[in-house]
Amino acid sequence: MEMRPFQRGVLGPSTLLPEAGHRGELQAILSSSMAASLAGLFLLMFLLFLLFILACRPWRFVNRRRSSTSPFFKVDDIEQPLFAENSVDTSEQCNNLARNFVEESNIQIDGNTSSPKTVGVVGNINSNRKHGFAIKKRVSTNFQVGAGDCLVLDVITDASDNLRVGQTLKRLAAQSLPCEGTKHIRWEDSSYDSKIIGDNGRTQISTLKDIAILRSSINLEVIAGPSAGLHCSRYSKDSTALPLTLGRVSPSDLILKDSEVSGKHALINWNVLKSKWELVDLGSLNGTFLNSKAIHHLDVGSRSRSEPFELSSGDLISLGSYSKISVQIVQDVEYELPFGVGIACDPMAMRRGGKKLPMEDMCYCRWPLPGIEQFGFFSIFDGHGGAGAARAASKLLPQIIVNILSNPEKKQRVITCCDASDVLKEAFSLTEAALNHQYEGCTATVLLLWFDYDEEMFVQCANVGDSACILDANGRQITMTEDHRVTSISERTRLSKAGMPLKEGETRLYGLNLGRMLGDKFLKEQDRRFSAEPYVSQVVHITKGRTAFGLIASDGLWDVISTKQAVQLVIQYVQTKERYEVPSENSAERVANYVLSEARTLKTKDNTSVIFLDFDLMRIDYRKHN
């Protein structure tokens, strides 16, 4: 049988291929593998190079050089305001707002209270009083400032969340820094600042002497960012506390936990020859800006001091990209106070797992009340659901008391009968009626202080909520407030008498732990157990021969410290560090800050405000007189 041509073929690799063919194939395979490996290595190196470039950001130096030397940089870009477009002419707006507020209603309240901010009423340094504090009254801004003037600043911080501790970050470019809404925050939202404001004219109290000294004060307040709530103040006459330094680390006077703020960033000092406050950059890495204009040296790598730049009321200072400072210059005429006053506040902003807490405490203190020269007003309002109700109440309630006491018959009745119960109850009632906050509320603790015609001092307190006030007179502790938390015995008794007892184990009403407050209109419409009726204390007579002090604080303090412990803290501090025999201008302020620091040490988780009243000064004067 004849076979076809392909039937004899064997499929598969030929056994007849020479050995050289195998070697060629192996070499080709090795060459292709090596080429692929080299290509992968080059690709990996290129990616690492890109990551290195992104991490180093060398273009920032180019941007800085262009921003400082470019001929196309417009003047308008430098001088543009630090606010949003809808905030036109904000500098004038802020000044006019402050001016109208003081001149028309004669009340000054600044929004929140912070690290701790400490606001003290500082007295006459030249006075023979050992704890003389001062009342300030506003002077026309066209008055020629003297050598004893001072200035007020507010710090606004808006720091990034993803920053490492201890690192000074370099900003991307030295451009105009936006500051939308800062003025609005200062006057409308910030509530970390309360001042003692003097009234025009002489008082009827012989212990208040018109010393006719013009001065001003510096107040730095951090109201946003990681250092929200920090507050620092200085006075032009207090040369030992000047210059005021700003930085990220100690020993700066105001320490800002902002990674773009240098260790020693800038300073503010009083120029005696010019009677002006001046700002100096200390060679900071990220620069200092005054109204968006760079005052630091624009040369890359230059770390030398800048020339001093004069500050004016309404200026804004920016440290790096985030921290911002609002500048307010206040010229005051001092009047000597017969007692010391110290105020300290802290939002405790980082206590809840890094969550930033808004400052909802409001403090308002005034001696004397405008037109009511024998009366003073000291108060704390602790808001919940927002700061709106507390802010409104802190403006309304003192003005309503002024209106009530402007009635000669009511004022005379208080002085003659030594009882202001009716005035306080009426003021709380009218304040509650005027508030229109449906979902916001606040506590209110008010200490009314007055002198009779024999120059004897009396105090009486009214409150709703859980911000407490205590007095210590000759070692005897007097509780001036009542606890209105739902868990308190007094509040459960009130509800039971009203025929609306709480259920067993019930500790809150509609999520609130308070039974009495101002505001919260929606809740009061839903449940009649909520009330705004205040508790009014008995009148306490503070004589000149007694050792006495008062302490008002929000629940941030009382959550971690009992009233007995607070009294012991004050006594301990006075005995060990603040001897009353040693003249001190800010003793009351230091005591308030010491009590606040103890609450911080005990890790309180709520906004904390403290007002300390030092009546012991009257005892010192009494000894001198005798």
From TrEMBL:
| GO-annotated molecular function | metal ion binding; protein serine/threonine phosphatase activity
Q: What class of enzyme is it?
A: hydrolase
One Pfam family of this protein, by short name? PP2C
Membrane-spanning ranges: 34-56
* Domain PPM-type phosphatase per the UniProt entry, residue ranges: 340-615
| SUPFAM superfamilies associated with the record | PP2C-like (SSF81606), SMAD/FHA domain (SSF49879)
Which reaction(s) does its UniProt entry say it catalyses?
O-phospho-L-seryl-[protein] + H2O = L-seryl-[protein] + phosphate; O-phospho-L-threonyl-[protein] + H2O = L-threonyl-[protein] + phosphate
Going by the entry's taxonomy, the superkingdom of the source organism is recorded as Eukaryota
Q: Which cofactors go with this protein?
A: Mn(2+); Mg(2+)
Q: Where is the FHA domain?
A: 244-295
Question: What EC number(s) are associated with this protein in UniProt?
Answer: 3.1.3.16
Mind listing the UniProt keywords for this protein, alphabetically? Hydrolase, Magnesium, Manganese, Membrane, Metal-binding, Protein phosphatase, Transmembrane, Transmembrane helix
Q: Which PANTHER family match?
A: PROTEIN PHOSPHATASE 2C, PROTEIN PHOSPHATASE 2C-RELATED
The Swiss-Prot or TrEMBL record describes its family as follows: Belongs to the PP2C family.
Q: What is this protein called?
A: protein-serine/threonine phosphatase
